[in-house]
Design brief:
The structure holds two protein chains of two kinds. By secondary structure, chain A is of the alpha/beta class. Chain A has helices at residues 19-28, 50-58, 79-97, 114-131, 137-141, 150-155, and strands at 10-15, 37-42, 63-68, 104-108. In chain A, strands 2-1-3-4 form a four-stranded parallel sheet, sandwiched between helices. Chain B folds into two domains: 2-118, Response regulator (Rossmann fold), CATH 3.40.50; 133-206, no CATH class. In chain B, 29% of the residues lie in helices and 19% in strands. The chains are: A alpha/beta, B alpha/beta.
Chain lengths: 157, 222
């Protein structure tokens, strides 16, 4: 690792109706969370496929956070329950491939839970800081693990 | 349909780790339906292999391709170009698919990415059950359409064994007793007399026990 401070690159898939709205609220409330967390809005966490998580790690993400509605509160009734099963199954595939399963996590956040969202993001960042950079990042960009833009990583493939 | 399941990634990686270019070849028929070797699984397993190879400090290039049916030469043809570009093929087809590819490309190593499990049906979402063990002499007409050979743990033609509890098999309590099902079914269709018929010992030579089987239809040969 370089002497630079490791700032985890985390992809946060947030569902449009709950978690994304709570991220919006966090912004309105001026709540701070680490800038290495990049939020991707999805119509529902049930839309997220196993491939999405795998591709994120393959391209060097240090962690993936899946944030859906509270159980029972999904706009599409049970999309977040499907997502939960898929996340759990992906964690096993990741572990088999050599990536710690703690790097992928699903949380349930309602549209009003902005402070909770910031808490889980900070939790996730701390977990990833303990684990260190994505173990395959070194071989992707030849660096010691410092962050590079994803576009750069992809062009080096 | 043929039902299969994915092998563990370390086992797959171990097989392909010495190659530089690996083609992960999916099959669009049975294994797509049983969610083991279709387009989506090709993508997931390829991704897992890329991660595993980078973790191991190797630079394996993993390519993806899917054909409609791996057990048929007509369809294998469509993968010819892709297979030529790679050093090895990781087939996500059933055992028949893997062998068909290997026979067609004698100079290309072909590895199996799935464990072919059985001939069965989709029972409910995410649940597949075995229904036929291809014994070669079908007895379903005599047993109300429920196979005692496949679904009875003891393969009994003259059942029940007497060990079932309620309607559960004594070997595996999560399975229903096939003979209970047969009794109920024959009763429902008014053919209960069939259950008192005695069957001679089964001739297993038509099964896999007699070696791998071949069917030749002279009327269709050219």
């Amino acid at each position: 690792m370089n002497d630079k401070v490791f700032e985890p690159k985390i992809i946060a898939f947030c569902c449009h109706f709950c978690a994304y709205a709570s991220a919006d609220l966090a912004g309105s409330m001026r709540l701070q969370y680490p800038s290495g967390v990049r939020i991707i809005r999805t119509p529902c966490t049930g839309r997220l496929e196993v491939e999405f998580y795998m591709r994120a790690f393959e391209n060097g993400a240090d962690g993936v956070l899946v944030a859906g509605c509270l159980e029972g509160g999904c706009h599409f009734i049970d999309g977040n329950l499907f997502a939960k099963k898929r996340v759990n199954s992906t964690r096993n595939i990741l572990e088999e491939s050599g990536i710690e399963k703690e790097r992928l996590r699903m949380v349930n956040i309602s549209a009003a839970m902005a402070t909770n969202l910031v808490t889980v993001i900070n939790d996730m960042v701390n977990t990833i800081k303990e684990l260190g950079p994505n173990p395959i990042r070194k071989s992707i960009d030849g660096s010691g693990g410092e962050y590079k833009e994803f576009e750069t990583l992809n062009s080096q493939k | 349909m043929i039902v299969a399941k994915r092998k563990k990634i370390p086992e797959i990686f171990d097989a392909v780790k010495d190659h530089k270019n690996v083609l992960v070849l999916g099959c669009g028929t049975c294994v797509t339906v049983c969610l083991a070797g279709g387009e989506r699984e090709v993508s997931i397993i390829s991704s897992a292999l890329r991660i595993a190879s980078r973790k191991a400090g190797k630079k394996i290039k993993v390519n993806e391709f899917i054909i409609e049916r791996q057990c048929d030469n007509v369809f294998i043809e469509s993968a010819a170009e892709e297979i030529k570009k790679n050093d090895a093929v990781l087939s996500l087809g059933c055992g028949a698919g893997v062998q068909a590819i290997a026979e067609r490309y004698p100079n290309t190593p072909v590895y199996a990415g799935l464990d072919t499990s059985f001939l069965g049906i989709l029972e409910s979402r995410g649940v597949w059950t075995e229904k036929c063990m291809q014994c070669g002499t079908c007895v379903l007409s005599d047993f109300g359409g429920i196979c005692p050979i496949t679904r009875c743990a003891k393969h009994m033609l003259n059942g029940p064994c007497g060990g079932s509890r309620e309607d559960r098999c004594e070997i595996r309590a999560d399975q229903p007793c096939a003979w209970q099902l047969i009794y109920k079914r024959l009763k429902d269709i008014g053919q209960l007399d069939k259950i008192s018929k005695e069957y001679p010992a089964k001739n297993w030579s038509t099964s896999i026990n007699g070696g791998s089987r071949t069917i030749i239809r002279e009327d269709h040969r050219i």
